[in-house]
# Entry
Amino acid sequence: MFITAPKIHDGISWLPEGSVIEIADDGTIIAIHDTLQDGTIHYDGILTPGFVNVHCHLELSHMKGAIPEHTGLVPFLQQVMQKRFGFTDEQKAAAREQAINEMYANGIVAVGDICNTTDVVDLRASGKMHFHSFVEAIGFNEMPTKQYDYAVQVYNEYAKQPVSNTILRQSNIPHAPYSVSHALFKLIDAHNPDALISIHNQESEAEDEFYIRKEGAIRTLLSSLGIDDSFFHPSGKSSLQTYMRWMSPTHPLILVHNTYTPSADAIAVQRLYENVYWCLCPNANLYIENKLPDINMLLLDANNICIGTDSLSSNHQLSVLAELQTIKQHYYNIDWATLLRWATYNGAKALQMQDTIGKIEESKKPGIVQVTDLETNPIAKRII
Ligand SMILES: [Zn+2]
# Structure
């Protein structure tokens, strides 16, 4: 089959005008031609590789609309903990199914999915998209063996899943700097020092306040949960500049949110770790904190920006394109060629899936998405 459109983005940049994609029935790219071929199908708008959602929590899909907007991170987390359990298994499974179908319809071909439970095991086997399941450990105490053992148990349930026609991978990860103690960071690191790590980073101002001075809303959150933080001594440095030394720099690192990350932290972590990806979830940031990261700083000081939707508890939809639209509205200096690279090729690289997806290139199988009305009201549609 031959397909073309007025503009084609290959995952890195725009292809020359008039390019035609030759594609096999199973979705494998056979070739890119520079002239029209017999029987070429013409699409309106633009064509891009399938989108990559680097950060989502499918297991929270049933919480859509359950938490009000603009509460700030700490009250938001308290409400997630209170409200996530008041649903039946059937309601939760139906919400997850609907969420993955929504992602598929919005052109998403791969997801970095945060897991605290084995709830998503069955959904992964559906073959609807590629998965990297990030199994989170949470525990802010000196002896987190119980929390670590639970996370490894969940991890093993994902790891033992048989190979399917989509990529299914998993790693053990820390939830966030304020919910994972030094001892738990060390256990996660030792599980596999090369594992792909994703962590919620500097999502609130209170996180750095806690690490620098051991004060503020995080401290209040821990005490409201009955957590004894007497073992914790403030480092006088930001969270990122502290915990980055608690793991082996061999880990490829996906830092998620970065709403309060300053330039000095971005530079420091990239000096220490070879592979750092900056995952932006702007709609969730606006939903929870009504604040966006300094994306112009990240453009200057960080290389690998990619995109996540976060969960339906902090977003109105699961659409990578809607995230790009929000960035474009607030940062009109960033061009669409760059934004689409973040959503496709960079996301694939962050999830280590760039050999299969993320780029329209011979022998890859990226999925093809049509986007219409890019400048006004962009709509994505998966065509292959
Ligand atoms: Zn998240």
About this structure: The mean pLDDT is 96.
